[in-house]
Amino acid sequence: MSTDEIFEVWDKAMLMDPAVEILCELRTRSKQVDTPPEVKEAIDKVLTTMAMRDTYCRKMTMPDSASTRMISKETFAMPWSQLFREGKVFTEFNPFYQSGPGQGQFLQFLIRMQKATRVLEIGMFTGYVAMAMAEALPEDGVVVTCELEPYLVATAKETFRGLPCGEKIDIRQGPATDTLDALAEEGQQFHLVYLDADKEGYLGYYKKLLDNQLLAPGATLVVDNTFEFGTAYTKSNTVMDQFNIAVMQDDRVEQILLPLLDGVSLIRRKGE
Ligand SMILES: C[S@@+](CC[C@H](N)C(=O)[O-])C[C@H]1O[C@@H](n2cnc3c(N)ncnc32)[C@H](O)[C@@H]1O
After folding, report:
1. What is the pLDDT of residues 189-219, one digit of tens each?
2. Cβ–Cβ under 8 Å, residues 270 and 253
3. What domains are defined for the chain?
4. Of 97, 127, 138, 197, which sits with the fewest C-beta atoms within 10 Å of its C-beta?
5. 171: Cβ below 6 Å to ligand 1?
């Protein structure tokens, strides 16, 4: 791998991993002071080896579908700052709001293992994962996905309309809290839920999913960003640390936190 390729990989990883950020700072400082060449080489080697591991994982994972690749590409091409300046979206998004490489395939794998037919996503963005999950469902399967931003909902509806599996996706616009209440009123239950919205809302969504039976017995809740860019384990009492502790203390569930990207928790409701 060339140095440019390595730093392309780390550009994104640095947003998520405080250890990589420290190493990159060390690399910059080692160029300014009188650092022995073998130390500089060792720093580069650590970063290169870590980048190679990430690239290898991507290479040895089944590829994305044409539809999800297209959604991902369009997400990178969208003029996010302009949309924000023009008031079309209320948050200044960037393409990295999109779920990370391999995450679509990971969820597809879980859906098939779980033999899920009803899936819920909290936080759709441009629809990368919603589409990946729809692709893993049987013909009569459904993905209900929640999104706050009307512009993202309108754009995703347009995108899904032209794609195979698009008709399996039911988008609910509005604050996820209201949507979860409405789904509970409708008596809906889900076999797999993917939680990937505003982090401050996680605990509230979790309680609604468990208390209102939206998460069926034996179903799996997949929660993204449970490292919260590393702050969950480098600082105490952060929003995500509090969420992770609350889940650990809830005897209705069993859980595992995987060191995948920014931390992914698998939480299974006991029963069945
Ligand atoms: C990290 S992105 C989701 C990425 C998406 N799961 C994917 O596959 O690419 C988080 C999304 O949650 C949405 N969101 C934030 N707060 C919300 C809320 N209170 N209710 C519903 N959606 C919300 C944001 O607008 C944003 O699109």
Report:
1. 999 999 999 999 999 999 999 999 999 999 9
2. yes
3. 3-59 (no CATH), 66-269 (3.40.50.150)
4. 138
5. no
